[in-house]
Amino acid sequence: MNLSSTGRSTDSSVPAKNGAEPHSLLTIFLRGGMDGLSAVVPYFDAGYYAARPTLAVAEPGSGPQAAHDLDGRFGLHPALQELLPCFHAGDLAIVHAAGNPAAGRSHFVAQDLVSAGMTRADESAPGWSARYLAASARADDSVLRSISISSVVERSFIGWPFALAIPDSSTFELHARSGSRWGQAVRGLHDRGSGYELRANTTLEAISSLAAARPYAIAPEPGAAYPANGFGRGLQQAAQYIKSGVGSELMTLDLGGWDHHVNLATRLPPMLNSLAAGLAAFRIDLGARFDRVTTLVISEFGRRVRENSSAGTDHGRGTCIFVLGGGVRGGRIYGDWPGLAAERLHQGDLEIGTDHRQILAEILERQLRPVAVGEILPGYDDRRRLGLFG
What's the predicted TM-score (pTM) here? Predict the structure, then answer.
């Protein structure tokens, strides 16, 4: 058995796992800035309807396009109705007026800060997931422990040398007439101090593990109807990794297209519907395994409170974050609500009542392997907790 310089096994067999299957975290990044005020409507706050005379979602009970009541104060957008059973079953928690307090209105800066788990821009800093993976690494970890279901490694994994980007597990292989011979050649090419040994060995080990476990051959459970798009296929792959028991602990998946400066009323509902349908199918597909999976749905920032002249909304601040899982204390709205009165806004935006790192801290403390939260989220020392997990 060959060992890398970090002591990690590079055996081509499916790696052993530490006892029981790990608790898995799937992070879904809604890129573009999701309008949390439309997704989870604060219908009790008069400032919402004053700021959005044409775009506001009607309060519950006022017609077929009205919000679905959640707790007497907030309502769920009608396009998210497939999440209602999850919410009422206590498997879905919503944190409103949340975000990174230093995000600003730049997509790129805000996305970087959220994935880094920091409040200052530093492109050289590892992502929060990379810090966690390094702090909690074990010798028998699966090479498939961290996966971006994408063609690129997600920013939160940057700094972790074993991070993988796998857009499609069924085609993640060496495309050659003799894959095994090419694998030997590639391994030999990079074992002479080229600096790429770790990457080469990790990739080849992942190819062998996927070929042995064949997660892509696992069919969805009856009733799990994933959306027929890239997001649905990505969610199905996440479920396949979990169901196959290959040791995938942290996974990321992107769903882009949330930057609705124009025509929000027609562009947003299909996006929300795809999100809700995918999450509902994911929950059904996992079955009993849902109890060992946490799904975090997050965006880089929200939208401005006031609608613009193009029937849309511009870059804002606070938004809502969804947390799903069998261990979630769901069926409620969490977080401090700053209010939508003009004097309560932050330069016209919904103020942030909950730092998104508070949610990450609770996930680290309650759902994943024991680590020192301060090392994973540098500079964050707030000990307050929302109580998201039972």
Answer: 0.92
